[in-house]
Amino acid sequence: MKTYQYRDLSIIEIPDSLLVTACDSSGGVGEKPGDELCVATKYISIFAARVCLFELLACGAQIIGLSNTIVGEMHPTGEALIKGIREELERAGIGDLPINGSTEENFKTSMTGFGIFVLGMANRLRITPSVSADVVICIGKPKYGNALILDGDPEIANYQDLKTLVKNPAVNEIVPCGSKGILYEANTLANIYQLQFEQLPNDLNVVDSSGPATTVIASIKPSALSGLAAIFKDKLTIIGYFR
After folding, report:
1. Can you give the pLDDT at residue 4?
2. Which residues 6+ apart lie within 8 Å of 142 measured at CB?
C-alpha cells in the first residue's frame, strides 16, 4: 500500500483502486459567546463540506464517507452543523451518504470548533497534466466573509459547473481555489509541471481569498475555450495561460 499527497488531497493506493481524502476545519466562527465572527451555525459546516466535496469531485472521486468533529454539544450546535452537512450533500446529489461524527458532551464550550473529513474512491484520478499553451480559466467570482451570499450565491462556482468541467475531455486539470487565492493556485499548478503561468488582465481579484472554494480554475486546450465560454457565459474569466 502506498500513501502520498497531491495538492490538498491525501491518496492511498489499494488493490485496483484509490482512496482519496480531504479535510477542513473552522474555529471561532458561529453563534457562541466566544466566537470572533457571528454566523448562523449551519453555514460553518455547509462551506466546510463544500470545500472537501469540491476537492474530491474535481479529481473524479466518488464520495463514499464523511466524518465530522464538533467541539461543542449536540444540542443545539451539533444538530445545526449536521443539518448544514446534510443540506450541502443534497446540493452535491449525494444526500443519502452516511455521516459519522463526535461531539463534546463533557465540558461546556464558549467558542465554536468544527472539523470535517471526507473520503472518496476512484479507479484513477481525473488529472490530465497541464501543458504549455493551455489556457487557464476561472469559473465564478472570489468571495469570502460578508461578501458571500449565504444561500445560493449565483456568482460562485457550483456543482453543475464542476460537473461540466470534469466531463469535458479538453479540460486538463481542475483546481478549486480557497483562502490562498486564484493566483496562488495557478502558479502552484504551473510549478507542478515545470511551466510558467502568464497572467492576463482581468477583472477578478486573483490575490485575495476565494473563501470556501467559490472559484475553480482549470487548464484547458485552447480549442475548448469557445465552447466553454458559451456554456458559462459571464461566470468564465480567462486569467492567463501556461508556457
Report:
1. 93
2. 177, 181, 182, 204, 205, 206, 208, 209, 210, 211, 214, 215
